[in-house]
Each structure stands twice: as structure tokens, then as C-alpha cells.
Design goal:
The protein is built from 16 helices and 18 strands. It is α/β, with parallel strands linked by helices and 486 residues long. The chain has two domains: 366 residues, P-loop containing nucleotide triphosphate hydrolases (Rossmann fold, 3-Layer(aba) Sandwich), CATH 3.40.50.300; 70 residues, DNA replication factor Cdt1, C-terminal WH domain (Arc Repressor Mutant, subunit A). Strand 10 and strand 11 form a beta hairpin. The longest helix is centred in the C-terminal third of the chain and has 36 residues.
């Protein structure tokens, strides 16, 4: 998958201009990640970005205990938490079905041969208690001073499904409790927010005080998230109000009809053919194990100091700075709601680029014969990471802009925008201005509603009007009239 030009200017300007043709010095992902992506899209057609991010989600989980990313006095882990939101029937479950056996085989090898303890959380329906654990009464024999024994009731923790290492795979993330809470999943947002905190501290441990037991229950979830869903109706609300999705790298794609047609044609062309699923299963499980071993070897070389496993050169910092500037510029002219929502994502997205740059560096390590040149994060690694994150960022901005636009139109219609517009057209002066109080009065007469209702409607239609003050009086006019003049 050719993704960006190695020439700095062209690579960065491609962020802004999707149609820019870049033909020379192609920058690709590390070879193993590229091959993984190419094989994955043979199963899940056209889903290159999610396929690549599946690879890096897995790699981050395998190496999380051996690598820390320094940032001044702070440290971050390299886990990637990926959320893939896309039109139903366009390959999400298909990619999961291709990816999951590779994960299972890799975990089996590492658990058996390397003393690890990885597994997969993939439960669709669960309660809070099943997720993080519970306290249960158990009988215990306690010896008294006279040597006799008595039976007492003690509270013992029962681990939840999230406890431990590995992947948390939600093929139906819409039922996670994030988008629609129920009494049995009321704390899902809190739990996800918590375990996605950096592992190099203590804030990632989920704690809950239950009726049983003197101490809070602890759930130590060190998993990485790989979650898929169709695009839920509540998505804009969760993004703008909840804060949990900012911690995840989101790729959102409402697949256009022409692309769905191409997917269907590929599906038809595959009908009746047989392709081996065993070869990629063996190949990529072995590759993940090899990467784990190479990182472990490096970890032991630096006296098991996770801060010394990788180093970051100055050019990588410069590249990240330019990516940050481009992200900020990309939303400068966006509608206010989009700008405010995306501002909450930029810091997290920079962290995703940092993590992916480190993971690209790790993925490349086994192919570098000179060990002294391994584990150095360069500008190229930042560009590789940015080529993926950029597509996630732009897809989110585009979707959010359209979704909020539709929501505002709906709200404006409910607030009788058409009546406000009609009164303005009829009563405004030659320049389109009308006294705000007169506008409200006329709308009241037209709709037979009270003043409180009109004031309640106004915030929902206000964005369509321009305002000016003359002395102490406020005048408004339709923005569309201003646009027509120009």
C-alpha cells in the first residue's frame, strides 16, 4: 500500500489536498505491516486503513510492558485503542474473522513458549459485574487462640472478563454501553476511560467499592481495544459530551454507493474460489512472535528500562510539529461546533501518531541487520504513522461536519426556522435588517406561541442570522441575504 511521498513538502501538503498526485519516492509502511495489510484486504475488500491499524493494535499490545514513550516527566504506553465505524455489510466482521485466528495463534505460542498470559475478551452481552468482577462470600476456617477452628464468611474477589492482557475485541461495539447505557452497563464509559490511561502509573486500574469487602475491588485491565460498529445515531452526542472516544483512534467511513458496488463485484468474483487461510495464519503469528522476541532482546539489553528501548531523533520531533500545525489548519475554517469538537481530539491524535511512529520503528527492527541502527524513531516513522492517522482524522472531521449540519437543520426546522425566515423576508429593510424584538413579536403572532417558546427556539436558529448593535437596540438579518449580495 503506497501511502505518502518521502519528499517533505509533498507529503505534508497531501494532508490538505486529497487530489494531489504524488508519484515519486513512495513511502510505505514497514514491510511486515504492508504485507499484512495486502493479505487482509484480500478478505475484507478496500479496508486498507483498518487492516493496517489491526496490525499495529496487536503489536502495541504485545510490546506494551517493555516499551514506554517518554514525554518530559510523563510516560505513555504504546497500546493502540482502535474504533472502526463503517456502513453495515462492508467488511468489518470479515476483517475480524480473518484477524482473530492470527491473534489466537500468536497468544497460544507466547503463552506456551514464552510464559505470557494473553487472551481475548470478546463478550457481546455482559453486566458491569461480569466486566470488572465482583465480591463473593466464601467460607474460611480461622484458628482460635485455644487451637480450635471456626468457620467465618469472608469476601473474595472474582475477576471480571476485562482483567488481564490481550485484546478487547468488540465486533458489536454499539452494544458496549457507550452509545446506549442500561442499568447493567451504566459504568461502561468510566471503565473504558480508566483502562485506556497510561500503564506507566496507577490511574489505569479500575476500582469500585462494593457492599461486600473492606477494600475496593480492583480490575487490572491492560488490554488493547479493537472495536467495530455501524455508525450509531448517538455518535455525535458521545463525541461532543462523553469524552471517551477521544482516547480511541477512530476511523469512520460512510461507504459511498459506488464503493459498495465495487465491494459487491469483488464479492461476486470470489464466489466459488478457494484460498488458503492457513498460510497467513501461520505467517503472521510467527511474525508477531518474532517481533516480541526482538523487542524483548532489546529490553534486556537496556537493563529492562522501558524508557531506553527506543530513542527519538530531532527530525521526528520536527515532523510531529508540522503534523500538529496541519491538523490545526485543517479545521480553522470549520463550523464552530466542528472546530470545538475536533479541538478535543488533537492532543490525543498527536499521541496516536507518537505511538504509531514507535510501533513502525519496532516493526522495522528485525529487517535491519545492524542492531545499532534499530529502535531509532525517525522522521520517516512519523510520516508512516501520520499517513494512517491523517486518514482517520480527516474522515472524522468530514463526518462530524455533515452530521452536525444535519442535526442543526433538524433542530432549526423544529424551532420553526421557516417562520423566522419568512418574517425577515417580509418585514426587513432594504439591507435585510429587522429589529430583533420586532422579529420575535411577528413570529409570536404567526405561530400563536408564547414569548418563552420563541426565546427557546432562537438558539436553534441563531446561527442562520447575522447580528449588529445600534445604540442599545439589536438588529438581525439572514446570512443567506449577505451571501447573495456578495
Amino acid at each position: 500500500m503506497n501511502i505518502e511521498n518521502n519528499n517533505e513538502d509533498e507529503a505534508f501538503y497531501a494532508f490538505i489536498d486529497d487530489d494531489k498526485q504524488v508519484t515519486s519516492n513512495k513511502l510505505t509502511l514497514p514491510e511486515i505491516a504492508q504485507k499484512f495489510t495486502e493479505d487482509a484486504v484480500q478478505a475484507s475488500n478496500y479496508n486498507n486503513v483498518p487492516a493496517s491499524l489491526a496490525f499495529f493494535t496487536m503489536l502495541g499490545q504485545l510490546c506494551k510492558d517493555m516499551v514506554a514513550i517518554p514525554s518530559g516527566v510523563n510516560k505513555d504506553d504504546i497500546r493502540l485503542h482502535f474504533l472502526w465505524l463503517q456502513t453495515s455489510g462492508t467488511g468489518k466482521s470479515t476483517l475480524t474473522n480473518w484477524f482473530k485466528p492470527i491473534v489466537e495463534r500468536t497468544f497460544t505460542i507466547l503463552n506456551t513458549d514464552h510464559g505470557q498470559d494473553f487472551n481475548i475478551f470478546d463478550v457481546t452481552d455482559y453486566t458491569d459485574a461480569a466486566l470488572i468482577g465482583s465480591m463473593e462470600n466464601a467460607e474460611e476456617q480461622v484458628q482460635q487462640e485455644d487451637g480450635s477452628f471456626v468457620t467465618v464468611q469472608v469476601a473474595r474477589p472474582t475477576p471480571g472478563q476485562l482483567e488481564g492482557n490481550g485484546l478487547a475485541m468488540w465486533d458489536e461495539f454499539e452494544y458496549s454501553g457507550i452509545f446506549k447505557q442500561s442499568q447493567h452497563k451504566e459504568n461502561s464509559i468510566v471503565y473504558l476511560n480508566t483502562f485506556m490511561n497510561t500503564l506507566w502509573g496507577s490511574t489505569w486500574i479500575i476500582k469500585k467499592k462494593l457492599k461486600l469487602g473492606d477494600e475496593p475491588l480492583e480490575c487490572r485491565c491492560k488490554r488493547s481495544s479493537f472495536a467495530t460498529s455501524y455508525i450509531p445515531k448517538q455518535l455525535t452526542t458521545v463525541i461532543t459530551e462523553k469524552g471517551v472516544l477521544q482516547r480511541m483512534l477512530i476511523f469512520i467511513w460512510e461507504v459511498p454507493q459506488h464503493q459498495q458496488q465495487q465491494m459487491r463485484r469483488r464479492l461476486i468474483s470470489d464466489w466459488g474460489t478457494i484460498k488458503s487461510a492457513e498460510e497467513p495464519l501461520l505467517k503472521y503469528a510467527d511474525a508477531f512472535v518474532k517481533l516480541f522476541q526482538v523487542v524483548k532482546e532489546r529490553y534486556e539489553e537496556v537493563d529492562c528500562d522501558p524508557l531506553k528501548v527506543v530513542t527519538i531523533n530531532k527530525q521526528a520531533n520536527d515532523a510531529l510539529t508540522r503534523e500538529c500545525i496541519l491538523m490545526e489548519e485543517y479545521i480553522t475554517d470549520s463550523r464552530q461546533e466542528v472546530f470545538e469538537a475536533m479541538e478535543t481530539f488533537i492532543n490525543r491524535i498527536l499521541k496516536h501518531i507518537q505511538k504509531l511512529a514507535v510501533l513502525c520503528c519496532i516493526a522495522e527492527a528485525p529487517s535491519i541487520p545492524d542492531k545499532s541502527k534499530r529502535f531509532i524513531v525517525t522522521q520517516n516513522h512519523v510520516l508512516q504513522a501520520s499517513s494512517l492517522v491523517r486518514q482517520c482524522y480527516k474522515s472524522l472531521v468530514s463526518w462530524l461536519d455533515e452530521a452536525l449540519r444535519v442535526e442543526h437543520k433538524s433542530m432549526a426546522n423544529q424551532a420553526n426556522y421557516a417562520v423566522f425566515k419568512k418574517i425577515c423576508k417580509q418585514e426587513a429593510d432594504e439591507q435585510g435588517w429587522i429589529h430583533k424584538a420586532e422579529l420575535f413579536s411577528k413570529v409570536r403572532q404567526e405561530t400563536q406561541k408564547g414569548a418563552a417558546t420563541i426565546y427557546k427556539w432562537w438558539p436553534k436558529v441563531e446561527e442562520y442570522f447575522e447580528t449588529r448593535k445600534i445604540s442599545k437596540s439589536t438588529y438581525v438579518r439572514l446570512k443567506e441575504d449577505v451571501n447573495n449580495e456578495t
